[in-house]
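chain and backbone:
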Amino acid sequence: MDNYKDWTYSPENFGNLPSVIADLHANKQRYIIMADPAISSSQPAGSYPPFDDGKRLDTFVKTENGDILVGKVWPGETAFPDFFHPNAYTYWYTQAKQFHDKLAFDGLWIDMNEPSSFIDGSATGCSKTSKYDNPPFTPGSILNFNLFGIPLIGADICGFRGQTTPEMCTRWHQLGAFYPFMRNHADIRSPAQDPASFQSPYVDNIRKALNLRYQLLAVLYTGFFNANTKGLPIVRPLFYIYPGTEAISNQFMWNDQLLISPVLTQGATTVNAFIPRDRFYDYYTLKPVNGEGHLVNLPAPLDTINVHIRGGSILPLLPTTTRTDDARLQAFTITAASSLNGTAQGELFWDDGESSNSIPSKTYSLIKFNLNKNTLTTKTAVTGYMPSSGIKAGKVYVLGVTQGPNKVLINGNSHQFVFDINNQKLEIPDLSVDLLKNNTITWQ
């Protein structure tokens, strides 16, 4: 950046940055920029459009007497766009679009997205005219934002300042794999803490956590679709689904499908987790777990975060690859976790992965899954995205099958299967089912 100012880059130090980005794109790599909502405010009028435009559109936060509130962040004195202002969208979009015309970035990371300032209140101090100027509480965890309607959120994995430890960083990556916005991010003066900076077994354990997230990316993507269209949070406290669990803050749900129980204590190899009174399945073994509504001591070796699939869920999972565009070409594994009454539902939102307007233009496909006793169906609710290769399912797991079937039929045709009586798991491998077509899988 040019003196830390948003929507700039230094022509002296990074004059060839557009060609660097072009080279990244030629190698199928992406370039994400970081911008702070704090806009530099101390330069002469007319010399910095991001501030001049905000002032003209009246989008900056004001003091009680109507002046622009001035704080201090990276560029020095700064103003803060008021995201409740009716002109805020026009203002922010215009700045991003004009900068994108100069520098073809692929994504925007809003850094310090809270109204963060290096001084208390403003350059003129803090007002004391109202009880709201000094609220008697501090907002809790960057995860509560899901309940506020802001789902793409996540803390700086391994911490922003100071020196982490290999164990803490491993455990934090396991937890961070379930942040909707996953980032390992540190102050420039901090020791290296990226996954590759650690030795085995820590780097291997972190890789395992990252692979877990890659497997679940389609579940997360579908969660964002529901957040966009229905306002549903992705990360949910347990009480969102199980009332009476308001005191539990060290576990959470992903959508209404996964129960996450991270290790938060140094040196721990077990976790004391609350398992609600419901049917669950261990994510790794797919073995059924009947929750009794009390705390259970679960094994949690250093390479594992406890994850349970909630009965009644159907998950579309992807194989692990090193690139998301490669993963999109792979066949899904459909994991149908039966509830206590033998039913389950799920869905898959899928588009080209690039377009920003696929929802309003309906250029996406929405596939609905339904399990009822011994029948699993897939139906297309929307078919606006139809790649030439189709959207394939290569394997199906049905969990909670108590009796071994004699045969399995895929759209009326017999197909091989494997049944594990001990884990009540029916596996249907070697499929080539196009999910853009309606399908019926039955077992007898």
User: Anything to note?
Assistant: Helices lie at 17-26, 49-57, 88-102, 166-176, 202-215, 217-230, 324-327.
